């Protein structure tokens, strides 16, 4: 179904590819501007920040490719009462809501991120153990992002007027492309609130440049497990208060 839509609206697909690559390029340009007059930013060199940006494009690109359009559709489903039909089908509704649409343009952003990562690391000696942990943490980071988005989006079931909450989540995603050290200047409450977001890209990147510790690994993994469980439980809880299209 998704591929049929892709082939039907080919011009839109091409325009989306261009927009995706432009947005990805802008993140790299911002790093060059940020480091134009300084060698390091919060302990990160320009090369490390570029690597962080490349991995940001891999993780966020994959997330947008698989999930973000489904969350955009989720608020519409609730608003127009279309969740009724999903709840009646012999398939888990959370799975159906989460994986209905697939954004093919995200593939190009992910590929661009992979290419830039290889280019940046081609002259570096990577610890094989750290590389394995990095590859493990990529899906963990994506799962953490999914659980955060799903947890917040589920509020729409009870508060249908929050249909624009997805716009807020897109803005929150922007925090993930910056080093977590940058946010330590905030007060303790704000920093604690942002931890699940800011570690999504930073910790996997730290493993590639041998700056991470076992604590970082278990922090990201535990955050992922906790938020996935909370997202599932809150989804089940919220469905009790879904009143369908009839109100």
Describe the 3D structure:
The protein has about 250 residues and is mainly alpha-helical. The chain has one domain. About 70% of the residues lie in helices and about 0% in strands. It has eleven helices and two strands; from the N terminus they run ααββααααααααα. α3 (about 45-80) packs parallel to α7. The radius of gyration is 19 Å and the shape is globular. The model has no long low-confidence stretch (mean pLDDT about 85).
Low-pLDDT sequence parts: none
What's the main sheet like?
2 strands, antiparallel
Q: How many beta-strand runs?
A: 2
From the N-terminal CA to the C-terminal CA, the straight-line distance is 31 Å
Shape: globular
Which percent range describes the beta-strand content? Answer: under 5%
**Share in helix:** over 70%
Tell me the structural class: mainly alpha
Number of domains: 1
Task: Round the mean pLDDT to the nearest integer and report it.
Answer: 84
Query: Helix-strand pattern, N to C?
Result: HHEEHHHHHHHHH
Radius of gyration, whole Å: 19 Å
User: How are the strands ordered across the major sheet?
Assistant: 1-2
Quaternary structure: single chain
Number of helices, where a helix is a run of at least 4 consecutive DSSP H or I residues: 11
Quick rundown:
With 247 residues, this protein is mainly alpha-helical. It has eleven helices and two strands; from the N terminus they run ααββααααααααα.
């Amino acid at each position: 179904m998704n591929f049929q839509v892709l082939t039907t609206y080919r011009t839109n697909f091409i325009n989306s590819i261009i927009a995706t690559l432009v947005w990805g390029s802008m993140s790299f340009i911002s790093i060059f501007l940020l480091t134009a007059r300084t060698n390091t930013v919060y302990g990160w060199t320009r090369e490390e920040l570029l690597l962080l940006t490349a991995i940001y494009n891999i993780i966020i690109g994959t997330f947008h490719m698989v999930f973000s359009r489904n969350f955009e559709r989720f608020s519409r489903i609730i608003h127009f009462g279309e969740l009724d039909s999903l709840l009646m089908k012999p398939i888990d509704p959370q799975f159906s809501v989460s994986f209905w649409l697939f954004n093919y343009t995200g593939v190009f952003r992910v590929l661009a991120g992979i290419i830039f990562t290889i280019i940046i690391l081609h002259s570096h000696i990577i610890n094989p153990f750290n590389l394995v942990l990095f590859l493990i943490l990529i899906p963990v980071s994506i799962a953490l992002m999914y659980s955060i988005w799903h947890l917040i989006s589920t509020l729409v079931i009870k508060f249908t007027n929050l249909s624009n909450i997805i716009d807020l989540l897109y803005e929150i995603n922007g925090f993930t492309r910056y080093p977590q050290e940058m946010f330590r200047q905030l007060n303790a409450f704000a920093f604690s609130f942002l931890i699940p977001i800011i570690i999504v890209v930073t910790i996997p990147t730290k493993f590639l440049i041998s700056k991470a510790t076992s604590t970082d690994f278990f922090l990201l993994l535990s955050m992922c497990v906790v938020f996935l469980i909370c997202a599932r439980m809150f989804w089940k809880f919220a469905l009790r208060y879904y009143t369908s299209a009839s109100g």
